[in-house]
């Protein structure tokens, strides 16, 4: 690795020594410097674009050119005449200034070549071909090469440290609410321009009065000729592994026209290439955003999904997936847009884990536990969305969306515990939800704007859990407490749960625009929520019948109704002063809470004032600082209020508390961003601090490793602080970046009636160096270092992960594409290495030329046949190290056909 790193440095250095620099200042006719002027250098011999630059706030530009070569320099700026001059380089650097004259004709600027990057207001426009090297196959491959754009570890697009919320293709939504489906599937050869829309406003009427600084969208402009017909590709292949035969079929078909579009993505494989994970499904917003998101009320409806084990980096022992998704948009007339999508995913996943759990306070007498598990998961996930936007004129807009979700999932787990013996666990659920959204926007005149937003959620969850404990002796104390029948061969306990949620979230906004620099916003809103929770714990007997144990006069069941309402009035005053934009606000809330269970009613009504503040400092066009403060009231869901016993799993029992109070949190965020297009330096930093008062915590008691918990409002404040930052810069043909993440959390835990303070410190640092050659192989070298530090007062544990990696890609003879990547991971604690593992993947593909219809690919994954990976986890009372078994070496041959 060290030798390769030096080779990359030497290669880039040798190229830089063979170049000279030309720099100078661009001014207007009266001598004022011009920012964001485009400067390009065209090689007179090859007629190719060799270098480009954009002036900074002082009008300075800088280009790197080859020695002893003739160039045509073009200097262009909107509204001014393009300056063109021929120069010949020698051995020395050149200083060359330009003065641009006004172009009264305002004719279109004619350039021989398009600028790789241009700026228009809050929009960055990348010319995709300027960054392609020939090895790209999908949109993600292009985005990774754009300065200022990142693909994070979750596969999401980030700009200025903000996650991109929407991807559009030619202005039409592409699976609204998710970006991975776009980055993983849109063919790179169809992409002409990538438009990054900062401060993106979903509704044009509100762009001047709402705070959109966290909203970033991307619009993909298709190449000419990619309109009014189908494009895309179909991939099919097969192969072999150590265990079984392999198959993969991936159709990706797209049709776009000015009037309508149709997209279809399909994926069937057993190669472990997960097109759409459970995490993607549950994180998929569908573009829905709650009207009360900035009101100061945080109402948690809870999640009653199964306790599914999750994939680590999309790896498992065996994965079979079937995925299909379709997206459409249709504009029958200029005033009406109709769109929607449908997604279906079927997966069968096998996971195998070895886990070592260490309970952090030895004085509590909880034994450490080693576990082994084999798990089979089956999952059917479906989602359907329909949307309509009607805009008869500039003053009126009506939106309607409906999103339906349905799923059927099961998890069968064979489990061995060094403390409790063999346990078989079965879980299944078939939940559904329907989410509807209606928005109406009305502009009375240039000074008075109204917006009505309403959202309704109907949700039904029905998880079932069953555990069979073969070693009765180790579970005897808990079984006796629950009243189980001990005259059986095993303890076979089960639980049915049902949670129904019905929520309306609506608000009416009014903006009075006082002048170009200030406006007042008044908000009247409400949240009305109703939840019903039923549960029952029972025992399966040897003869197949069901037995209902007696525990505390029927406290093994729940039948709880929970009603919540929030009626609020808010006011914000936004004004600009120089480079500052201020937006202080306050909201007044009237809360009402009521829950009914076991024939008793608990009710609480109270009033609260919640302030918030937002300030933005625009230092330059592409440099800003923002500061935010908000005070929130946090409310829990019905499952924490239910007094009857709930079986989270065989060793986790839970009682709720009907009298739980709300919590208060104070949240502060400070962020800085700078993108200098003069030298392509991208700097982002973010600090977050939150403090929670009366936070809901659990009082836990252990019998061996079996825990019984109940919630209460802690009188001790919990705190969290996080910091993250990124520095990225291009040096000629090299791009270097440094990323850092630090998180500190302090919370109070209560075990065996003892209070202790838990402090977690997690740190991740990543440095990366990559080349940016157009006609030569490219290399990316990275190193990631992670520290997981858990201090629980009486004990402290640290885990370290060191992970160097390298990626290489080359476009050879304009026909062959070779890609390979290697990563090494060393997982250790303070006593030394726990596990080390590495991965090596490679692919070689042949295409006659860039316009050929067929491409042939040989792809190998996990060439070193690594068997398992490792990671660490921590909870309120334990830390653990997990060995995670993965798929073996796979070798596949694939044929791709381009439409």
Structure description:
With 899 residues, this protein is mainly beta. The strands form five sheets. It has a 37-stranded mixed β-sheet that branches. A six-stranded mixed β-sheet has the order 9-10-16-17-14-15, with no helix packed on it. Strands 1, 4, 7 and 8 form a four-stranded mixed β-sheet that branches. It is globular.
List the helices and strands and how they pair.
Blueprint lengths: L1 H16 L1 E9 L10 E6 L5 E6 L5 E7 L3 E7 L6 E6 L5 E2 L2 E2 L17 E4 L2 E5 L11 H5 L5 E3 L5 E3 L2 E2 L2 E4 L2 E2 L6 H4 L7 E8 L17 E7 L6 E13 L3 E12 L3 E10 L8 H6 L13 E3 L18 E16 L2 E24 L9 E25 L2 E22 L3 E9 L2 E14 L2 E14 L2 E6 L6 H7 L8 E25 L2 E23 L5 E2 L9 E21 L2 E3 L2 E13 L2 E21 L2 E13 L10 E4 L2 E3 L8 E14 L4 E13 L2 E8 L2 E8 L4 E14 L2 E18 L2 E18 L6 E14 L4 E17 L3 E14 L2 E15 L7 E8 L6 E7 L3 E8 L4 E9 L1
Provide a count of the helices. Answer: 5
Summarize the biggest pleated sheet: 37 strands, mixed
Unreliable spans = 106-111
Helix content class? under 10%
Principal-axis shape equals globular
Q: What structural class do you assign from the helix and strand content? A: mainly beta
Give the C-alpha Rg.
Answer: 30 Å
Percentage of residues in DSSP E strands? over 45%
Average pLDDT score: 88
Number of E-type strands: 54
> How far is it from the N-terminal to the C-terminal residue, by CA?
40 Å
């Amino acid at each position: 690795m060290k030798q390769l790193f030096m080779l990359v440095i030497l290669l880039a250095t040798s190229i830089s020594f063979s170049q000279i620099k030309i720099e100078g200042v661009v001014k207007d006719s009266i001598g004022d410097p011009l920012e964001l002027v485009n400067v390009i250098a065209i090689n007179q011999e090859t007629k190719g674009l060799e270098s480009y630059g954009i002036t900074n706030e002082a009008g300075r530009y800088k280009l790197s050119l080859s020695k002893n070569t003739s160039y045509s320099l073009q200097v262009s700026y909107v509204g001014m005449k393009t300056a063109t001059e021929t120069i010949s380089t020698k051995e020395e650097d050149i200083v060359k200034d330009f003065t641009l004259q006004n172009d009264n004709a305002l004719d279109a600027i004619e350039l021989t070549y398009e600028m790789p990057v241009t700026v228009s207001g809050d929009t960055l426009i990348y010319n995709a071909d300027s960054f392609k090297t020939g090895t790209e196959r999908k949109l993600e491959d292009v985005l990774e090469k754009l300065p200022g754009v990142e693909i994070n570890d979750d596969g999401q697009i980030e700009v200025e440290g903000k996650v991109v919320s929407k991807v559009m293709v030619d202005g039409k939504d592409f699976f609204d609410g998710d970006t991975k489906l776009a980055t993983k599937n849109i063919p790179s050869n169809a992409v002409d321009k990538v438009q990054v829309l900062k401060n993106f406003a979903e509704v044009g009427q509100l762009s001047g009065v709402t705070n959109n600084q966290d909203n970033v969208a991307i619009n993909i402009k298709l190449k000419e000729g990619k309109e009014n017909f189908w494009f895309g590709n179909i991939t099919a292949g097969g192969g072999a592994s150590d265990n079984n035969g392999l198959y993969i079929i991936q159709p990706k078909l797209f049709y776009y026209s000015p009037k309508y579009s149709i997209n279809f993505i399909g994926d069937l494989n057993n190669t472990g290439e997960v097109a759409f994970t459970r995490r993607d499904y549950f994180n998929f917003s569908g573009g829905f955003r709650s009207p009360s998101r900035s009101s100061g009320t945080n109402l948690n409806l809870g999640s009653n999904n199964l306790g599914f084990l999750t994939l680590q980096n999309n790896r498992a022992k065996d994965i079979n997936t079937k995925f299909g998704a379709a997206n459409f948009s249709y504009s029958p007339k200029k005033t009406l847009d109709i769109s929607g999508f449908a997604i279906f995913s079927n997966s069968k996943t096998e996971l195998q884990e070895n886990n070592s759990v260490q309970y952090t306070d030895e004085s509590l007498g909880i034994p450490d536990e080693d576990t082994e598990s084999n798990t089979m998961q089956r999952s059917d996930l479906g989602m359907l969305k329909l949307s309509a936007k009607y805009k008869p004129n500039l003053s009126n807009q009506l939106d309607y969306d409906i999103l339906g979700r349905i799923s059927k999932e099961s998890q069968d787990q064979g489990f061995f515990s060094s403390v409790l013996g063999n346990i078989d666990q079965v879980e299944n659920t078939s939940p559904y939800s329907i989410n509807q959204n209606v928005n109406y926007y009305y502009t009375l005149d240039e000074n008075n704007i109204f917006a009505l937003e309403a959202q309704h959620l109907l949700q039904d969850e029905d998880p079932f859990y069953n555990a069979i404990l073969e070693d009765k002796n180790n579970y005897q104390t808990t079984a006796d407490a629950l009243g189980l029948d001990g005259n059986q061969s095993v303890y076979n306990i089960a639980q049915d749960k049902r949670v129904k949620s019905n929520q309306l979230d609506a608000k009416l906004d009014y903006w009075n625009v006082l002048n170009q620099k200030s406006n007042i916003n008044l908000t009247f809103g409400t949240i009305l929520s109703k939840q019903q929770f039923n549960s029952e714990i029972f025992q399966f007997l040897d003869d197949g019948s069901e037995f209902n144990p007696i525990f505390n006069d029927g406290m093994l069941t729940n039948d709880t109704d929970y009603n919540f309402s929030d009626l609020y009035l808010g006011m914000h005053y936004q004004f600009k002063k120089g480079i500052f934009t201020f937006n202080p606000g306050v909201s007044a809330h009237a809360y009402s809470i009521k829950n009914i269970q076991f024939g008793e009613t608990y009710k609480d009504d109270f009033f609260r004032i919640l302030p918030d503040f937002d300030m933005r400092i625009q230092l330059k066009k592409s440099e800003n600082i923002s500061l935010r403060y908000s005070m929130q009231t946090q409310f829990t869901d019905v499952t924490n209020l239910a007094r009857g016993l709930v079986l989270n799993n065989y060793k986790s029992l839970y009682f709720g508390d009907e009298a739980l109070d709300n919590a208060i949190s104070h949240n502060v965020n400070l962020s800085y961003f700078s993108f200098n297009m003069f030298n392509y330096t991208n700097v982002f930093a973010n600090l977050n601090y939150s403090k929670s008062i009366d936070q809901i915590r659990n009082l836990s008691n252990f019998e061996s490793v079996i825990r019984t918990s109940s919630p209460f409002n802690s009188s001790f404040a919990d705190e969290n602080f996080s910091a993250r930052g990124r520095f990225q810069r291009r040096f000629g043909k090299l791009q270097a970046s440094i990323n850092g993440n630090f998180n500190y959390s302090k919370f109070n835990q209560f075990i065996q009636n003892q209070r202790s303070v838990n402090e977690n410190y997690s740190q991740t640092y990543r440095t990366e160096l990559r080349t940016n050659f157009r006609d030569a192989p490219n290399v990316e070298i990275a190193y990631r270092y992670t520290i997981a530090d858990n201090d629980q007062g009486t004990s402290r544990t640290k885990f370290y992960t060191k992970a160097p990696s390298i990626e290489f890609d080359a476009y050879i003879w304009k026909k062959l594409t070779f890609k390979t990547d290697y990563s090494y991971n060393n997982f250790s604690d303070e006593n030394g290495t726990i596990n080390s593992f590495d991965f090596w993947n490679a692919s070689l593909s042949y295409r006659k030329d860039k316009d050929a219809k067929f491409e042939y690919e040989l792809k190998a994954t996990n060439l070193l046949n690594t068997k398992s990976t490792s990671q660490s986890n921590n909870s309120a009372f334990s830390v653990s190290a997990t060995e995670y078994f993965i798929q073996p070496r796979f070798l596949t041959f694939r044929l791709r056909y381009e439409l």
